[in-house]
Amino acid sequence: MNVLELSEQEIVRRQSLQELRDMGIEPYPAAEFPTNAFSEDIKNDFKDEDEKREVVIAGRMMSRRVMGKASFVELQDSKGRIQVYITRDDICPEEDKTLYNTVFKRLLDIGDFIGVKGFVFRTQTGEISVHAQSLTLLSKSLKPLPIVKYKDGVAYDKFEDPELRFRQRYVDLIVNDGVKDTFLQRATVVRTIRRVLDEAGYTEVETPTLQAIAGGASARPFVTHFNALNVDMYMRIATELYLKRLIVGGFEGVYEIGKNFRNEGMDRNHNPEFTCMELYVQYKDYNWMMSFTEKLLETVCIAVNGSTERKVGDNVISFKAPYRRLPILDAIKEKTGFDCNGKSEEEIRAFCLEKGLEVDETFGKGKLIDELFGEFCEGTFIQPTFITDYPVEMSPLTKMHRSKPGLTERFELMVNGKELANAYSELNDPLDQEERFKEQMRLADKGDDEAMIIDQDFLRALQYGMPPTSGIGIGIDRLVMLMTGQTTIQEVLFFPQMKPEKKIPQSSIKEWGEIGVSEEWAYVLRKAGFNLISDIRDEKAQGLQQKIGDINKKYKLGYEKPSVNDIQAWIDAAANVAVVTEEAE
């Protein structure tokens, strides 16, 4: 990278970096710096009557107040922040005061990592602090942090733009309070789920991420190519069919917490790459799974929040069991007055069109019912509600209902207006399963690009016999949103998918060279604000010479200044390029 592509602060920091090295100080030392304390623990454990406690701490310097021979620094470590008191004579006990006067005051910057050895005390203002007796530079920061500044009660330089925050999560975690807490709570959610499932005797397993058939859900997959086998593969959309194979193989219960990938839209509730927990247990049904799920979510909420309630937006959601159970067709009738029971596909399609839904001939009966529920029902269920007994057309992997013809033993858990979990009494009749797959293929032939493909190996596994089984999938990202009170999925993903970063259009160095501008002066022109060759065509030669000369002087580049005639030649060539481009268009 050319130095002129950096900001002024970045240039100064790199100059400081070099000056430190010239002094014999390595800005990125390799040796271990053995800490023995963290900021929050120091403050929580401090008692005025205790003997003086020696500590070794390290962290990022977030602020600095220099008052002559003494200074205060705010140090941020992995657990929080603590004030450090630094005096010249304490860290420079000998005659040489360079470490304080030059290194600390001039060559260190906000964002640098430092190590401090000292003792804990309380200042006259009552703040628990560390009195430094030695100071070590551990890592030099070359980019300035967006530290919030306040003037007359107004905050400036906030790092709050969502696109910047999600794209540069590392900066977001450093400067914005509470962001790290959300992800610590996420870890608690996952850890608690594992604990509950492990204590129940179920086995955590791993199944393939690359799959020959994208099965286990109705979704559009990502496609990749497996060079070694010379075949196209799919990023998995679900773990279901592989986990069921393990039930066939004799496991009592198996679960997986892992990434799924669906090549679909992105919004406040969806990310194409998401985390899901799927659990399958033999000899259980969907009624047992509803009870198990209630207890699981109640336990998770208590672990994260200390109670069974959590405020999300304007809603206070209670995860205390039991939850309401409502058949899906009853839910649609409750919200629309239309009873889908006994209705044909054509009758349901006509009602959808009457209600203004965008449906077409490719939509089968199941998808039409799904559209009705999504439009009129889903968003109305704020408190946890099990929506049960889905039509068979919507549930190709689910066992037929034991007493309701045409329906299946399936539930979805709705919370805060969104689906959180999907569960079945699993279909274990291999002949029925084959017919369901064939029906899915008929939907695919009609144009449904989310219909399932027949998985012949899974059918073969079922033919060896799968015991009665219940399974569930829970969206971890949405669960974390609920447990942390966040309203967008991006807030609970460290690195959500983003559109490509926008870049300022620039003529290449080669293109500048084609009009006679050397590489070194091309970077100077960019620094002066001329990103495209066409930007200089209306400039005056003497004025342009002055602009680039000022940059040459400011940054002490030492380049030989081009003559006015040379610069006029650049301008003329740029004008000719612009004319040729316009004529071509």
Automatic annotation (TrEMBL):
Keywords: Aminoacyl-tRNA synthetase, ATP-binding, Cytoplasm, Ligase, Magnesium, Metal-binding, Nucleotide-binding, Protein biosynthesis. Residues 183-496 form the Aminoacyl-transfer RNA synthetases class-II family profile domain. It is found in: Cytoplasm. Its EC number is 6.1.1.6. HAMAP family: Lys_tRNA_synth_class2. Binds 3 Mg(2+) ions per subunit. Homodimer. Its cofactor is Mg(2+). One of its GO terms (molecular function) is magnesium ion binding. This is Lysine--tRNA ligase. One of its GO terms (cellular component) is cytosol. Mg(2+) 2 binds at residue 419. Belongs to the class-II aminoacyl-tRNA synthetase family. Pfam families: tRNA-synt_2 (PF00152), tRNA_anti-codon (PF01336). Mg(2+) 1 binds at residues 412, 419. GO terms for biological process: lysyl-tRNA aminoacylation. It catalyses: tRNA(Lys) + L-lysine + ATP = L-lysyl-tRNA(Lys) + AMP + diphosphate. Its main location: cytoplasm. It comes from the Bacteria. It comes from Leyella stercorea.
